[in-house]
Design brief:
Blueprint lengths: L3 H11 L1 H36 L2 H6 L3 H45 L3 H4 L4 H42 L4 H46 L1 H6 L3 H53 L5 H18 L2 H24 L7 E4 L7 E9 L9 E9 L2 E6 L6 H9 L6 E7 L6 E4 L10 H6 L6 H10 L3 H6 L17 H15 L3 E5 L7 H14 L4 E5 L11 E4 L4
Parallel strand pairs: 1-5, 4-8, 4-9, 6-7, 7-8
Antiparallel strand pairs: 2-3, 2-5
Helix pairs in contact: 1-4, 2-4, 2-6, 2-10, 4-6, 6-7, 6-10, 6-11, 7-9, 7-11, 9-10, 14-16
This protein binds adenosine-5'-triphosphate.
Adenosine-5'-triphosphate (ATP) binds next to helix 12.
Length: 543
């Protein structure tokens, strides 16, 4: 099992040159900005003091500090520009490698049983990936800048006025370590709860929208609306509390930094009174502290982002461990045995949420080409068997030997046909390059050609939510047309004609029998009157 934290570190190290350049330039920009503030403060006050006496004004060197100020402002601008370029370049590179690697890992998980389509799981996963991606730009980079600014600030104090160090060390440690720790705790504490609440809200909203007609018919729409509103209010409240808590910690940090600045100014003035420090230097120290404090404030969100990123890596690792890669229990033999057949031996399967197994020691032999009818009462396991043969579900025990074809030559038509919100053409081809005559031929086989011709823009008519909505029967036939166009060798059909009138269903079966004469078609159906004498049949019984 790959270690996700190590994987992230490896990808970061791969891009270390760009990432390091980004950090160096960001530090240079911060140093230049703070030094610019401090030096120009010193320059203005020193020039003002020199201007008070004609002799001092004559002796004062206006040119060297002016040049330093200009130099610093140039290096700040150049540093910021370069830092944006390199740190964003590094981020993009890290993100693109990271996404590729993470999605490769995720694709190996047995999502069919984990129910990826559960909104909370998938949205949590996407949020985690975003948090992991933000580790470099929003955590490592600002934390490094802030840490190095703190070191440089302490060194400058040590050089200019060492007696100041004991006064600033405690507030500095608080602002750099304690407050960010508190802030990240506040963020992490509410993050998981807020995510769950958002997910619940999304689920209720989508359930309400998709069942609007039913709810209206039963006059329950208003109550469902109230429920949703209540959920939104609770989430808003939780969100507001979380923001308030975060703001409070930030405010406290700012207060600590202000106290530190006042202490620096007070000690600077005392040193000035005791003639240990020049007046202009005292003012410079004040501005230096203000500039450094501004950078140190970014420590809080940086540590929180690091916490979120690490928690996300941990969660991903946990789900990878929780779903060990399951070996494919199907065996394909398409070289030595050209004859199409499927042999199922001692198959055992039970859904993770269920104690009762759907299959126990199930055996079947299917010889092709031809039609095989799967029958049995509702809930006996017909769809499950099709998903097991298709490889969507993995058997706990037993084997499925598929001879004469490879895994890519199997296609399943599920009970529910999803219609994409795009043109009829794209809904049929699903991004395969298919010529127009082939499309019309497929439509003709499923008796949809007249319907397609009558659509406002023919094959280019948009289907789906908010567009032209195909009826239940039309959806089924679009599903069949997709399979015809994909031309697999082993076809798995889950109630393909449910909802169609008998005459139409019979016509379609007749066409498909001729068109698919060289394939194996395993068809789950309650309409057994469409079977022909040469067909095989498997009747599933409970247990
Ligand atoms: N994801 C799941 N988690 C737990 N149980 C499931 C899941 N999917 C299906 N089942 C259960 O497994 C059993 C077999 O379901 P399956 O859909 O294979 O039946 P079926 O024979 O195709 O039914 P029908 O003829 O009504 O379509 C049923 O008891 C069903 O409730």
């Amino acid at each position: 099992m790959p270690n996700v934290k190590r994987l992230y570190l490896k990808l970061l190290l791969q891009e270390r040159k760009m990432a390091l350049l980004g950090i160096i330039l960001a530090v240079l920009t911060a140093y230049s900005g703070i030094a610019l503030l401090a030096v120009s403060g010193w320059f203005i006050s020193a020039a003002a003091l020199a201007g008070l006496s004609a002799v001092a004004a004559h002796a004062f060197n206006f040119f060297a500090p002016g040049a330093i100020v200009r130099g610093l402002s140039i290096s700040r601008t150049a540093g910021r520009y370069g830092e944006r370029l390199s740190s964003h370049e590094a981020t993009f590179r890290i993100i693109s490698h990271l996404r590729a690697n993470l999605f490769r890992l995720i694709s190996r998980m047995s999502w069919s049983e984990q129910q990826l389509n559960r909104h909370e799981t998938s949205s949590r996963l996407l949020q985690d990936i975003q948090n992991i991606e933000a580790i470099y730009l929003s955590a490592i980079l600002p934390a490094a800048v802030s840490f190095l600014v703190m070191i440089a600030y302490l060194i400058t104090l040590y050089i200019v006025l060492p007696s100041l160090l004991p006064w600033v060390i405690v507030p500095l440690l608080f602002a750099t370590f304690v407050m960010p720790w508190l802030y990240s705790h506040r963020v992490l504490a509410s993050e998981t709860k807020l995510h769950q609440q958002h997910s619940q809200q999304w689920l209720s909203a989508s359930a309400l929208l998709s069942c609007m007609r039913t709810l209206t018919l039963f006059e329950r729409l208003r109550d469902s609306g109230h429920f949703l509103q209540q959920q939104a209010q609770e989430t808003d409240q939780e969100e507001a509390t979380a923001v308030q808590r975060q703001q409070a910690v930030l405010l406290l940090t700012q207060l600590i930094l202000i106290i530190m600045t006042v202490l620096v100014f007070w000690q600077g003035l005392l040193a000035f009174q005791h003639e240990q420090l020049d007046g202009a230097y005292a003012f410079m120290l004040l501005l230096l502290t203000l500039g450094s404090a501004e950078v140190l404030l970014s420590n809080c969100p940086a540590l929180a982002n690091l916490g979120l990123g690490l928690a996300a890596l941990g969660r991903l690792q946990h789900s990878l461990i929780a779903t060990p890669e399951q070996p494919d229990t199907r065996h394909f033999n398409h070289t030595s045995s050209p004859k199409l057949s499927v042999q199922i031996n001692h198959l055992e399967y039970s859904y993770p949420q269920q104690h009762r197994p759907v299959f126990e020691q199930f055996n079947a032999q299917i010889k092709g080409p031809g039609w095989v009818w799967l029958s049995g009462h509702s809930g006996v396991g017909k769809s499950t068997l099709l998903a097991l043969i298709y490889g969507q579900l993995k058997a706990k025990n037993g084997t499925i030997d598929v001879n004469g074809i490879s895994a890519e030559q199997i296609r399943l038509m599920p009970q529910r046909i999803d219609i994409l919100r795009t043109t009829l053409r794209d809904n049929l081809t699903l991004n395969l390059t298919i010529n127009e005559p082939a499309l019309w031929h497929a439509l003709q086989l499923v008796e949809l050609d007249h319907w397609a011709k009558r659509l406002p823009q023919g094959l280019d008519t948009w289907l789906g939510e908010g567009e032209w909505q195909p009826s239940g029967g039309e959806r089924k036939r679009i599903g069949l047309a997709r399979l015809i166009l994909q031309d697999p060798k082993l076809i798995l059909l889950d109630e393909p004609t449910a909802g169609l009138d008998s005459a139409l269903a019979e016509k379609i079966y007749r066409e498909l029998r001729t068109h698919w004469s060289d394939k194996i078609i395993i068809c789950s159906s309650h309409e057994l009157h469409f079977t022909a004498t040469q067909d095989q049949s498997i009747e599933l019984t409970a247990g």
